[in-house]
Design goal:
six-stranded antiparallel β-sheet, alpha+beta, globular, 3 domains, 9 helices
């Protein structure tokens, strides 16, 4: 969205607010400029896949609720605290004597829904999928974030770090939502998207962090950004094009402040037997040479020299095969062992969670933290 497509009030704010906040950029870490952008209000309810490919589901509600057909017709009451069993029957779902193409489970009043062993806000839709069933939690964006912030960051961390995580997570899920073409859900609930486990991950601190940043998202040229985040970079984040694909102006390599974190430096030792099992055909490893690395030293490709041959693997493949925390590693061969001195955890793009923690402890605000890790991004408000 450009300024030309905004309402007159929004264009007025775009014109005057950057000047108002200009002095902030003299602070040690850059702050973000506030913009009011008209992002779609339909983004406020999310569809989150919470179970996939299961043959049977135990569901229920904390208050008296109801099971409805896909068309919204009530078919069964759910007494408070009692369970209902849904089963996959061919290309349909069955509950009690009813079969259909899907069923809603909705609590009454301010109640919650449980699916399996977890409680969720909102309501749940169960639909036939992949030979089993798919359970999708329809939940308000802000209430979804109550759980995500706690799933992605310890709830005891400084509130400014939690607020930075809330804005990043809100932005990330809206970015993923606008690019989703799945007919049943917008986003998953695992680390492939963002960790979402319902009420179990909520805490007073995460609710405060979300509520105090309500509706705030990061934008660039009026569009929500790909607000990637990770645990720790090992001293310096990466340019996005060196890790994924195309360059993005707001995901640039910057100094990290994660020193002292548990994953700032670490070593993983791999046995020759484990190596032979994961990389068959070349025998015991005798040498490893990086063929391509990022500017910060992350392995893109590495040549592995064995007693019986040589192969080339990507850094991501090696990380996956040997369960390494990141691709910022080297390999040494010492007798029967292969220690891998390394730094950081995850991909090293965007917000560093341990960096946010350390900066917040030093007194920096969530605005300063976000402004540092997302260069050139602006803080915008959902309507």
């Amino acid at each position: 969205m450009t300024a030309a497509t905004l309402s007159p009030v929004s264009r007025w704010l775009l014109r005057f607010q950057p000047t108002f906040f200009k002095g902030w950029f003299r602070w040690p870490l850059g702050l973000l400029v506030w913009l009011w952008v008209c992002l779609p209000a339909s983004a406020l309810e999310l569809r989150v896949a919470i179970r996939d490919g299961v043959d049977q589901l135990t569901v229920g509600t904390s208050t008296q609720g109801v099971v409805k057909s896909a068309a919204g017709q009530p078919v069964q009451q759910t007494p408070a605290g009692q369970s209902v069993i849904l089963t996959a029957e061919g290309s349909q779902v069955q509950v009690g004597d009813w079969r259909g193409n899907g069923f809603w489970v909705e609590p009454g009043g301010d109640g919650y829904v449980f699916v399996g062993d977890r409680w969720y806000r909102g309501r749940v839709f169960v639909v036939p999928y992949n030979g089993g069933m798919l359970a999708v939690n329809y939940v308000d964006l802000e209430e979804y974030l109550y759980s995500v912030v706690g799933g992605e960051m310890p709830t005891s961390w400084p509130i400014e770090a939690l607020k930075a995580q809330a804005v990043a997570a809100r932005t990330f899920v809206l970015y993923r939502r606008q690019g989703s073409n799945h007919p049943h859900f917008d986003v998953g609930s695992t680390t492939a998207a963002q960790v979402y486990r319902g009420l179990a991950e909520e805490a007073p601190s995460t609710i405060t962090a979300v509520n105090s940043t309500r509706g705030q998202v990061l934008t660039y040229n009026g569009q929500v950004i790909l607000a990637a985040f990770h645990s720790a970079s090992g001293g310096h984040t990466e340019n996005v094009e060196d890790i994924w694909s195309q360059p993005l102006p707001y995901l640039r390599a910057v100094e990290d402040f994660d020193a002292g974190s548990p994953v700032y430096q670490w070593t993983e030792t791999v046995s020759q037997a484990n190596f032979r099992a994961q990389v068959p055909g070349i025998g015991n490893l005798v040498g490893a040479t990086p063929l391509q690395t990022t500017a910060r030293g992350r392995v893109v490709e590495m040549r592995l020299e064995g007693e019986n041959g040589t192969t080339v693997l990507s850094g991501n493949d090696l990380r996956r095969l040997f369960r390494l925390r990141s691709t910022l590693f080297s390999v040494a061969v010492t007798g029967g062992q292969m220690p891998s001195p390394a730094r950081g955890s995850a991909h090293g793009l965007g917000l560093s969670q341990w960096g946010a923690h350390n900066l917040a402890q030093q007194g920096y605000t969530y605005l300063q933290i976000l402004g540092h890790y997302y260069q050139g991004a602006q803080l915008s408000q959902l309507p």
